[in-house]
Design brief:
The structure holds three protein chains of three kinds. Chain B is about 60% helix and about 0% strand. Chain C is about 30% helix and about 20% strand. The chains are: A mainly alpha, B mainly alpha, C alpha+beta. The interface between A and C is large, with 90 and 80 residues.
Chain lengths: ~325, ~350, ~575
């Protein structure tokens, strides 16, 4: 088991290293650069040359990468030029990450709360209106562009009905104490109920928009997995033994059917991160996705490097944890 | 014996990698080697007692038999056929030139930025005075082009890599698959976004390329899995025993057999490609030249009019949703019908 | 069993959403009651007549400030914030681009225009409690001039580099600044090395804000270093800006994108009308509008002209600033020989339907441009008319020049909007169609603004491109001087015969000490540029707007977008 874990960790390290090299070279090959972003129409070739010299961007790419590694080994991953000039890129990631975690967590919770029961019911009543309806619904969920859904939700619930705030994470004037950076959690921890409530209200629309795809995926997985299990011998055996239906459902069907569902849920992080770029933009939700989009706009090399690396790291880690969990359950996986 | 929980469940996208592998396995004749994952060798998890698919009836025939009665497939196919038809004939039946600024004189940035419906222009015009109905109709063509080319690009790229890996195995396989895994480790839209941002001059082609590149690792893994599944199958062994050359085996015998899952995947990718193109436009990375309209681009460009003139966004959005749904329905039902397991 | 639990959960969620809605509709009426801390907690509900001195003014900006030391800044979002915190020796007349006395009560130049004496205002205190005097002013000048190392980079000190030139330890670069001395406690004497139209007017620009020398010292204000891919800034620029303005800096919250300012109770002039000002960064234009409609902000910058009418219908006040910008089509003959012929350039100009472009793509108050700067700038030539739309003339000029089959690469910027160019794609499309209508083959090339467009145009890669300029202060030099004085510019005027003539005329006008003579020289030069030289095609001047809720009064808009929000009051 431990050998398996070590091997997976090594693989992850190699993957990340390769990614960091590719990313570094690619970012610096982008046309334009921070000066254009900083000065706009006021930039001149002389300004650009001076800046490139000051930042060492005129050096060969290998020299630049070596310097980057040197600094990285001292825990410095570069200084932002555009998103929040002068701040360490890792610091920016850490300050933005809680927002994205919070948003993703709520979106995922929502997707599970709706997707699992609907999927289960659809499987139990296979072929009924409920089944086809929910499957169709989930397919539509995949077909709607996330940002369009976000706009539509905002238009209806924030603008037309005025029920929820249209953007941001917190109302101005809520003087909340922040511990984790996840506002709802902070509000609960400090017992500042109004702050928690305010943060929650800001979360609802983006979370619903972001949950559309994970919801569809979870629904269909649950349905397929339950169908599969219902067909298994042990369920039939249990039925013929005369066990009560709820017992069968709880003990045999659900427990077995939920295993792949749990995996799926773990593995939706990638989709969530990508969706967050769009959702956070529509709702001006200042998380990682927001910083990433702005990083591109301002050609902020340091921030882009750190954000993309961290996104990949999170994604790989989650994958790894899931796989290791599997290895623990199923000895056959380890062999491969 | 309990089920191996890692064995992919048919018809269910799970882990991106696993879903691809599951699909690949479905191409193995006689339900042979399955689940190829990770690097290197595979252990064929043979399913005891599995009967070869349909006595004497080809995979495709039996699939078609069931699809004929599957309303999900029929609805999806109807949408797809209509869409393709529209894409072909739209430029000839569109009432106006989609790039012609026919109502530009009515456009006043403040008082009337978007001319409304009027005789000859049932949906009105857009913010440059161009007939909206014509743009929507002609938009089908461009949308189809983007979807198809992006899918084909991903397919051919993936085919090159996957064939390389699957056919040769060994270190070629390890290297290629490691690269593919790195690429798969980045969320797809994030990658498309990053690639699109890289180009010096955004155009329709950069959009297509960005989406295509993202699909390359998907197809590569799919084809490689399918090749691996077939490497030890009887027909390949037979060919090899007869002394058929390696290249011929790969292209004559292995590739055609891998086409089933590839087609399924391609159908699904077409839908995502159209949606991703819209997302790129929304992020400002779409095709800046909107003379030849494309729905995703129309939707992305309409974002600043969403409050005041929502119809500019809603029409193209509806078109995208319906078409993406059509392709997804077709893909899903194809997948199910081609899956040996669901043919019990 | 589980199904029932989850049903209940789903139900509970639905109820929660509905409840949220109800709660919101009650809260909606009072935009952000002024928080638990601070002065204004008691008055959020009771509507009173007249201004509420304890109110919080929440403003939606298009971007976040980069830092809080304006000397190291070059972007409008930073200056918007620092203008509230700091003041300069000179200031702009409210609502105009002309300069007037600021922290200097009065000032006068010597006969030769090289020595300037500033009488400093009495009784002004910095936010840290120290007094403003002539020594403090000279300390600021000395700080600017004595920047060292990486801070000399024009990406850090853009305005000094461009307005004053070199720094103390740069022997190879001339500097406009010579010295600052104090002749008594309240009199500073600044010497410059040459006469220029921009001095002392340039001192009204936000970059030349006067800082507290004590605070500069305490927070290590000059410590700018290049590190890896960026510059690090000292604590002063990030957390401790200390000026004399009507607002004090109270904090920046990056997680919310909010800058908080508080009224300076010791301000020497009229105190701010609100107790607090919060500037929220909301990059998306339509989201700013939605926030205003939801009542969560009191105003925002750069409303989309498409929304102006709807905003006014909702009761908001759309204040249109006078246009202080120029949109032009830059031409560059380096890559396209045909453009060297002035008749081709004129043909391109006649082909453009400026009237239609302005009417369909630009807001009310926008005007077709006849020259390279707006009316508000001294030296504007009132006799000059914009090129009329005359496709026939364009065709015949092209034929005359032997370029009837002219083919031209035309660059379009993506991922950007500017105040002079609200929707680049539409403007591009309009000009492209106009050109095609006279038989020109247009090859469109799109480039991301920060990803190749600006570099490419600077490096003469684009034969034709859209670009513009928003003025920093009332000076022709700030417009045409910036564009054409250097001959290796984005128009590549070095390609033309008139290059030296144009440069000499610009330098002569800039160093003319007498304002009237200078204006006359500039006015004549404008005519020549528009008719004979035509290095680019002036297209339009577009007024940017700012919008505030009906409860807000007292806002004085500035053509330079340099609003002073201390006059704003809120009735609620």
């Amino acid at each position: 088991m431990s050998r398996y874990i070590v091997r997976r960790l090594l693989q992850a390290v190699v993957t990340l290293f390769v990614l960091s090299v590719l990313l570094f070279a690619w970012l610096r090959s982008l046309p334009g650069g921070p000066v254009s972003a900083l000065l706009g129409e006021r930039s001149t070739p002389a300004d650009r040359a001076a800046l490139e010299a000051a930042l060492g961007l005129d050096q060969p790419i290998l020299v630049q990468y070596w310097r980057f590694l040197e600094r990285a080994s001292q825990g410095q991953f570069g200084v932002s030029t555009g998103v929040l000039p002068g701040r360490d890129a890792l610091e920016i990631f850490l300050s933005r990450f809680p927002a994205t975690i919070e948003l993703s967590f709520f979106a995922l919770t929502l997707a599970i709360l709706l997707g699992v029961p609907l999927g289960y019911l659809a499987a139990r009543r296979r072929g009924t209106f409920l089944d086809t309806g929910s499957v169709l619904f989930s397919l539509v969920g995949i077909a709607v562009p996330v940002f369009f859904l976000a706009f539509a939700l905002k238009y209806v619930f924030a603008i037309q009905l005025g029920l929820l705030p249209p953007s941001g994470r917190q109302s101005v004037g809520i003087n909340a104490t922040h511990i984790t950076g996840m506002y709802v959690l902070d509000g609960l921890m400090t017992r500042e109920w109004d702050a928690a409530w305010d943060a929650l209200r800001h979360l609802i629309l983006p979370a619903v928009a972001l949950s559309s795809i994970p919801f569809a995926v979870i629904l269909r997985i649950t349905r397929a997995s339950v169908l599969e299990v219902l067909d298994e011998d042990y369920v039939r055996t249990a039925q013929s033994k005369g066990l009560r239906a709820p017992t069968i459902r709880g003990r045999h069907v659900l427990r077995n059917a939920l295993i792949p569902v749990v995996t799926t849920i773990g593995l939706q992080t990638g989709a969530l991160l990508a969706g967050a770029v769009l959702t956070e933009r529509v709702f001006t939700f200042r998380g990682v996705g927001h910083a990433l989009a702005y990083g591109f706009e301002t050609r902020d090399y340091a921030v882009l490097q750190v954000l993309i690396m961290m996104a990949a790291l999170v994604y790989i880690l989650v994958n790894m944890v899931v796989d290791i969990a599997y290895a623990a359950i199923d000895p056959r996986v380890r062999v491969r | 014996m309990t089920e191996n929980p890692r064995r992919p469940i048919p018809g269910t996208p799970r882990h991106k990698k696993e879903r691809i592998d599951a699909l690949a396995a479905s191409s193995a004749p006689e339900g042979g080697a399955a689940t190829a994952s990770g690097g290197g060798t595979t252990t064929a998890l043979r399913e005891a007692g599995r009967v070869a698919g349909g006595e004497g009836v080809s995979l495709w025939m039996s699939a078609w038999r069931r699809l004929r009665h599957d309303w999900v497939f029929l609805v999806g196919a109807a949408i797809v056929v209509l869409f393709v038809l529209l894409a072909i004939i739209a430029p000839f039946i569109a009432p106006h030139d989609p790039a012609g600024r026919v109502l530009i004189d009515q456009v006043h940035r403040q008082s009337n930025p978007v001319p409304g419906p009027q005789p000859g222009h049932p949906l009105g015009a857009d913010y440059l005075g161009r007939d909206l109905l014509s743009r929507l109709m002609v938009g089908a063509r461009q949308t189809l082009i983007v979807g198809v080319l992006a899918t084909l690009g991903g397919l051919f790229g993936g085919m090159a890599l996957g064939t390389l890996a699957g056919a040769f195995g060994g270190w070629v396989d390890s290297v290629v698959m490691r690269v593919v895994d790195v690429l798969l480790s980045i969320p797809s839209l994030l990658m498309a976004f990053s690639i699109a941002a890289m180009f010096r001059s955004p155009s329709q082609w950069t959009v297509i390329l960005a989406i295509a590149i993202v699909q390359v690792p998907v197809f590569a893994r799919l084809l490689r899995g399918s090749m691996l599944a077939q490497r030890h199958s009887d027909h390949v062994l037979a060919a090899r025993a007869l002394g058929v050359r390696k290249g011929t085996i790969v292209f004559r015998h292995m590739l055609p057999n891998a086409m089933g899952p590839v087609i399924v995947q391609a159908t699904l990718v077409l839908a995502t490609a159209i949606i991703d193109a819209a997302a790129l436009s929304f992020l400002g990375l779409g095709n800046p030249d909107d003379r030849a309209p494309e729905w995703g681009q129309m939707l992305g460009n309409a974002q600043s009019y969403f409050d005041s003139h929502p119809h500019l966004a809603v029409y193209p959005a509806l078109c995208i949703i319906v078409v993406a749904l059509g392709f997804t329905l077709v893909g899903e039902s194809l997948r199910e019908s081609l899956d040996p397991k669901s043919r019990r | 069993m589980l199904s029932r639990t989850t049903k209940a959960a789903v139900g509970a969620l639905a109820v929660a959403i509905a409840l949220t809605g109800c709660a919101q509709s009650q809260r909606d009426t009072a935009p952000a009651p002024a928080g638990t801390a601070g002065a204004g907690t008691s008055d959020s509900a009771a509507p009173t007549d007249g201004a509420n001195p304890d109110a919080t003014f929440i403003f939606g900006a298009a971007g976040a400030p980069k830092l809080f030391d304006p000397f190291y800044a070059s972007d409008g979002e930073t200056f918007r914030v620092t203008r509230q915190i700091y003041e300069q020796l000179l200031d702009f007349v409210p609502g105009e681009a002309k300069t007037t006395a600021g922290l200097a009560e009065s000032y006068e130049g010597s006969e030769d225009g090289l020595t300037w004496t500033f009488k400093i205002r009495e009784g002004v205190k910095f936010h840290d409690g120290t007094d403003l005097d002539a020594a403090a002013v000279c300390a600021n000048f000395d700080r600017w001039y004595n920047q060292t190392g990486d801070a000399q980079n024009s990406a850090v000190t853009y305005y000094w580099n461009n307005n004053f030139g070199g720094f103390a330890d740069q022997a190879d670069r001339d500097s406009l600044f010579e010295s600052c001395t104090t002749s008594d406690d309240m009199t500073a004497v600044v010497k410059v090395t040459r006469v220029t139209s921009k001095f002392p007017d340039i001192l009204a620009h936000g970059a030349y804000a006067i800082h507290s020398p004590a605070a500069l010292e305490e927070y290590d204000a000059n410590n700018v270093t290049a590190q890896g891919s960026g510059f690090t800034y000292p604590a002063y620029a990030l957390e401790h800006p200390t000026g004399t303005g009507a607002f004090k800096f109270a904090g920046y919250n990056d997680a919310n994108g909010e800058v908080t300012l508080e009224r300076n109770e010791d301000y020497w002039g009229d105190k701010a009308g609100v107790a607090k000002m919060v500037i929220r960064s909301i990059p998306d234009e339509s989201t700013r509008r939605q926030e205003l409609q939801a009542g969560t902000i009191h105003g925002y910058d750069l409303p989309n002209p498409v929304d102006w009418k709807a905003l006014e219908d909702d009761g908001a006040k759309v204040e249109i600033r006078p246009a202080f910008n120029i949109l032009y089509v830059g031409l560059n003959a380096t890559k396209n020989e045909a453009l060297k012929d002035v008749r081709v350039r004129q043909a391109l100009s006649y082909a453009i339907n400026r009237e239609q472009l302005v009417q369909s793509q630009l807001p009310e108050g926008a005007e077709p441009a006849s020259q390279f700067f707006p009316k508000a700038v001294s030296g504007y030539n009132n006799d000059l008319q914009p090129y009329p739309h005359d496709p026939e003339k364009a065709k015949s000029l092209l034929a005359e020049a032997g370029h009837s089959d002219l083919s031209i690469e035309f660059w379009q910027p993506t991922e950007v909007t500017r105040p002079y160019m609200p929707d680049p794609a539409s403007i591009f499309e309009a000009i492209r169609s106009d050109w095609e209508a006279v038989g020109i083959t247009v090859n469109p090339v799109a480039k991301p603004w920060t990803g190749g467009y600006l570099d490419g145009t600077e490096q003469s890669e684009a034969p034709a491109y859209l670009l513009g300029w928003t003025g920093d202060y009332d000076s022709a030099d700030n417009f045409i001087g910036t564009f054409f004085t250097q001959q290796d510019n984005a128009f590549a005027t070095k390609n033309y015969d008139f290059a030296n003539e144009l440069t000499e005329a610009l330098v002569a006008a800039d160093s003319e000490p007498d304002a009237a003579t200078r204006d006359q020289m500039v006015s004549e030069l404008n005519k020549k540029i528009a008719e004979e030289y035509l290095p680019g095609l002036p297209i339009s001047h577009s007024p940017p707007a700012i919008v505030v809720a009906s409860s807000v009064s007292g806002l004085v808009t500035s053509p330079l977008a340099a609003e002073d929000f201390s006059t704003v009051t809120i009735n609620e």
